[in-house]
Amino acid sequence: MKVSRRSQVPPFAVMEILAAANARRAAGESVLNLCAGEPATGASEVVRRRAAELLAGGDLGYTEAMGAPPLRAAIARHYAHWYDVDVDPARVAVTTGSSGGFMLAFLAAFDVGDRVALARPGYPAYKNILAALGCEVVELACGPQTRYQPTVAQLEALDGPLDGLVVASPANPTGTMIREEELAALASWCAAHGVRLVSDEIYHGITYGGPGAAGPATAAQYLDDGAVVVNSFSKYWAMTGWRLGWMVLPEDLVAAVDALAGNVALCPPALAQHAGVAALSPEGYAAAQENVDRYAVCRDLLLARLPELGWSRVAPADGAFYLYADVSGSGLDSVTWCARLLDEAGVALTPGSDFDGVDGDAWVRLSFASSVEVVGEAVDRVVAWQRTL
């Protein structure tokens, strides 16, 4: 029988590494997993407590397709609290994780054959979802000269029309951020050229600029210019498996997303939605910030030990919880490097080929969303293992 051409997207190499790491751990081996972009703590106590209350006697039936009104209102308040941006709850769409958000955003905004630009290296699901939907992906080679983020100059230099631009700040895998004035310039260029800006903001809240430093700017400031914001409870609130995300939409996409959401999934998981309101409480914010404080200690540890690791080329780790490093000096490509590191030292990292099909063979991604003890021991093992190469 026929298998669709659109389904032929590449798998994540990280999932193969993760499966191998889990198999070794199940066999009793000591494995330190720094390959998955997943906070080690899981959801906070306030979220778990609310979920237990709901399971004991709450209404867990269908919600509205765009999400439960109390959660949409809480998300709107979040934008006033964090960004001083006024968001109408009617423009908030709750989604099944940010992945569901990207699918709905791309379906609502783009047609088959539309050209959508994004940074390379970058999160592979963007281009894979777009390709499966019949869009043409235009990769922008973003290296140290642009701090691994797209620029207006790159957009100006493109041949042919453009229908969309996907940006991420902080970005996966690099952790780099788009400065506020740069985001404003990108949004202005997109508005002037009729290009839909889609902003991935799932790592907002996880930044390391120091006391008084500004966090990442939100594209919610540019809704009237047609921008779309995608966010999630997975990273800052450590709720990965709860599959809860959201979008903030420009007016022209609200009806389309509402109709698509109702047809695709009826509604996001009700338990996660009602518990998500608790995540947006003062107690929920406080618990999330404790995680960020721990990530900051892990980040400082890694940066201090870069000379021992011999990783001289790393992306600026402005935010998120990743270190993206060039390991080409080992003489191994990143897939081989990661496979041997797991096999010989019991440490799981992600090969850069997941994020960059051109230059990723030289790079690896290390996730430090773990305990300081685990990250420290992992560095010890990597340092010792590299001496054997």
Distance between the termini: 47 Å
Uncertain residue segments:
none
Give the number of DSSP strands.
Answer: 12
**β-sheet strand percentage:** 5-15%
Overall outline:
globular
CATH class of the largest domain: Alpha Beta
CATH superfamily of the largest domain: Type I PLP-dependent aspartate aminotransferase-like (Major domain)
Neighbour order of strands in the largest sheet: 2-8-7-6-5-3-4
Mean pLDDT, to the nearest integer, reads: 95
The Cα radius of gyration reads 21 Å
What is the chain-wise order of helices and strands? HEHHEHEHEHEHEEEHHHHEHEEEH
Structure description:
The chain is an alpha/beta fold and 389 residues long. The chain folds into two domains: 5-43 and 284-386, Aspartate Aminotransferase, domain 1 (Alpha-Beta Complex), CATH 3.90.1150; 57-279, Aspartate Aminotransferase, domain 2. The chain is 41% helix and 13% strand. It contains 13 helices and twelve strands. It has helices at residues 13-26, 45-57, 69-83, 97-109, 124-132, 152-156, 180-193, 251-264, 270-279, 282-304, 306-309, 334-345, 372-386; strands at residues 32-33, 92-95, 115-120, 136-141, 164-168, 196-200, 228-232, 245-248, 322-326, 347-348, 350-351, 363-367. The strands form three sheets. The chain has a seven-stranded mixed beta sheet, with helices on both faces. The longest helix has 23 residues, at 282-304. The radius of gyration is 21 Å and the shape is globular. The mean pLDDT is 95. Belongs to the class-I pyridoxal-phosphate-dependent aminotransferase family.
